[in-house]
Amino acid sequence: MILKKIHIIFSLIVFTSCNSDRLVNYHITKKKPVVDSYFGNKIIDNYRWLEDDLSEETEEWVDNQNLTTFNYLEKISYRKELKNRLESLWNYEKVSAPFKHGHYTYFFKNSGLQNQRVLYRSKDGLEPELFLDPNEFSEDGTTSLAGLSFSTDGSLLSYSISEAGSDWRKIITIKTETKKIIEDTIVDVKFSGVSWKSNEGFFYSSYDKPKGSELSDKTDQHKLYYHKLGTSQNEDKLIYGGSIEQKNRYVSGYVTDDDRFLVIEAAQRTSGNKLFIKDLTKQSEIRPIIDNYSSNTSLIDNTRNKLFLITDYSTPNKKVVTVDYNDLSVLKWNDFIPETDFVLNISKGGGYFFASYMIDAISKVYQIDYRGKLIREIKLPGIGTSSGFNAKKNDKELYFSFTNYFTPASIYKFNIRSGEYKNHWTPSIDFDSNSYISKQVFYNSKDGTKIPMIITHKKGIKLNGQNPTILYGYGGFNISITPRFSVPNIVWMEQGGIYAVPNIRGGGEYGKKWHDAGIKTQKQNVFDDFIAAAEYLIENNFTSSKFLAIRGGSNGGLLVGATMTQRPDLMKVALPAVGVLDMLRYHKFTSGAGWAYDYGTSEQSEEMFNYLKDYSPVHNIKGNAVYPATLITTSDHDDRVVPAHSFKFAAELQSKDSGLNPILIRIEKNAGHGFGTPINKIIDQYADIFGFALYNMGYLALPKKLRL
Q1: CA distances from 530 to 193, 421, 463, 539, 573 (A)
Q2: I need a labelling partner for 374 at 20 to 30 A (CA). Which of 41, 100, 160, 527 fits?
């Protein structure tokens, strides 16, 4: 008690705004020790019981934590102002690029604040009609549209839905002309697209339903099925998977545009896949194109027997190769688009390929014909991120979008023959992008590796070390973080805030080598890169430790958890979202074992166990450390990274709380890992996150007056 009083006095002296009403009386989390042994090392898990998402005791803990958190957040006077500004700025019409199927042209639209975007269609230039409205799937907007797949002639549509943000899906098939459902719903589908074979039926993937909790129990035997239209699901034919001898956690199947080939990808982990092909026009066996997990290889297209593959086999930055269906040996692969110094992504449309390269996380796009001839570089509207460049083989035009950190995504119509494009749609939004600037810098990490970082803010801010700053990172799974517009980030920057994103190792910005430099026993490189980014921002007076918040989600939540436990002095606020935080047990839940390419596992070897233990956020919380103000966010239906990670991290932090900074967890109900979350929930989340961050940086009022 005496120690707590000292903390209160100290906080009032050091930082005026850290007054006593900030100190939180946490709900006490019971300890029920479970002891695990790893290579003779005893590890105590006091909060194993929080892994049981079916337990009433866990549900009660969630309710108590939310009560504490929202009681705290309600003290932030300007939280409502932030919410109002988020709503105001978000309330603009958003339209997708059109896409054609059958006799109709389809597009998505959100009028402004609709929880889910709506699918419209038009025919022969007539006024668009509403085709499918996911906002009617559930009263609270938590059931979302998760995917679309049209039959070859466009007369049928199978669409998948996600309930409460779960990765489990249901597939519903309708006639597009009448919008009538034509058969029973396919259930228990997960990590799957839908790919039609003509109009006869479709391929999809799923796991056997867990016997316990479908939100947390392990799922590691993925299977590809064929569903023939008009038959029941229990008659669906198993095409690939199900072997006890060789489990594949991720299996997908897709049919080529000419309906000739079924292509199957099978993977045990999130990197590396086998690739198979089957001729659907005759009785034929499934044949391997590449029968090991050493590369990431996919089929892009075919012209009769000639197959076009994109691969990082022996080429870390990827290339496109061709091979004849009759002789699939790797030795017969021919380079079509050779590897360059930059990472390649490929799309196709109108009889051409579109090669998109990331150059220091910035897009460049080239048009190439099917003989391999470079047609042109497509001069993009600016420096940022382009996406799209997809169309059917006979289309004469396609669409692409362009965006960056302060430019809302606009859509452009591209003439495939001439290479000319014009604006198709630009959003009308209450925001002046000319008032903002992005700057890319390069800084040295701990081992001397140069890391790029894009820093975005209002023009004219003073570099005095007092700017509220969010440092956002991911650093894993070969995923590249490229410039994209975000309403919440703009609201943050309107307050005079800075938004900084380093492209740290573990991501895909510089290819497979960059990814592999941040995995397993190289994972510390990722944290070092992020720490060095924070140090750069502080050393160059963009901000200081008193005004720095670190944020990341999923693998980025791990990044935040590891950084705040290794360098708690470096930031004022930590915002780990849906994070992987218990590195000794992550592989025990849902499809977590598939992440072992990036992480390794605690059971793999004593070396790997020790490495994981030494950075696992849950296992590196010290009783004598002062941790930053922390708002952990997760969702009760997250079956990608189960919320038990966040629960245990919060409980451990609170049990060792210094009393100087709040340690809170915000648990969203009826939401998942992020996909399909209703707009109203997203707005509430960001108002809470930004309010918490600014409040703990010392702002009793908003730093800048909102433009309302």
Answers
A1: 34, 39, 21, 14, 15
A2: 100
554 among known catalytic residues: yes
Q: How far apart are CA 521 and CA 506, in angstroms?
A: 12
Task: Note whether residue 8 is domain-resident.
Answer: yes
Q: Indicate whether 558 belongs to any domain.
A: yes
574 in any annotated domain = yes
Containing structural domain, residue 18? 2-87+431-696
Indicate the pTM of the whole model: 0.94
For residue 625, give the CATH number of its domain: 3.40.50.1820
Exposed e or buried b per residue across 484-520, where buried means at least 16 C-beta atoms within 10 angstroms of its C-beta: bbbbbbbbbbbbbbbbbbbbbbbbbbbbbebbbbbbb
Domain membership flag for residue 194: no
Nearby residues of 2 by Cβ (< 8 Å), 6 or more positions away: none
d(CA 370, CA 402): 25
Give the number of other CB atoms < 10 A from CB of residue 191: 19
DSSP H/E element including 255:
strand 250-255
The verdict on 464 and 578 lying in the same domain is: yes
∠ Cα 589 250 671 (to 5°)? 50
For 51-94, the pLDDT digits (tens) are: 999 999 999 999 999 999 999 999 999 999 999 999 999 999 99
Whether residue 592 sits in one domain with residue 579: yes
Residue tagged active-site, from 101, 227, 515, 673 = 673
Same-domain status, 438 and 527: yes
Name the nearest CA neighbour of 602 among 616, 590, 591: 616
pLDDT in tens, 127-182: 999 999 999 999 989 999 999 999 999 999 999 999 999 999 999 999 999 999 99
CA distances in angstroms from 363 to 236, 360, 397, 481, 663, listed in the order given: 42, 9, 20, 12, 39
Write phi, then psi, for 635 (nearest 5 degrees).
Answer: -135, 150
Task: Decide: 146 and 676 in contact? Cβ < 8 Å.
Answer: yes
Domain identity same for 485 and 621: yes
Does residue 438 share a domain with residue 564?
Answer: yes
> Cα 66–558–220 angle (5° rounding)?
95
Q: Is the distance from CB of 341 to CB of 319 less than 8 angstroms? A: no
Degrees, nearest 5: CA angle 624-630-634: 125
How far, in Å, are 115, 549, 573 from residue 540 at the CA level?
Answer: 41, 16, 19
Helix 56-73 and helix 679-696: axis angle, to 10°?
60
Any long-range contacts for 57-64 (C-beta under 8 Å, 24+ apart)? Answer: 58/647, 61/27, 61/29, 61/647, 62/636, 62/647, 62/667, 64/27
Edge-to-edge strand ranges of the sheet holding 407-415: 385-390, 397-404, 407-415, 421-425
Mean pLDDT, 10 residues at a time, the chain of 708 residues = 33 34 80 98 98 96 97 96 97 96 96 97 93 95 95 97 94 98 96 96 94 88 96 97 84 97 96 97 95 96 97 96 97 97 97 96 95 97 94 96 95 98 95 94 98 97 96 98 96 96 97 97 98 98 98 98 98 98 97 96 98 98 96 94 97 93 96 90 97 96 65
Number of domains observed in the structure of the chain: 2
The answer to whether 673 is a known catalytic residue is yes
Q: Which of 382, 411, 428 is the last residue of a domain?
A: 428
Determine the straight-line distance between the first and last CA of the chain, rounded to whole angstroms.
45
- Identify the active-site residue in 151, 295, 554, 602: 554
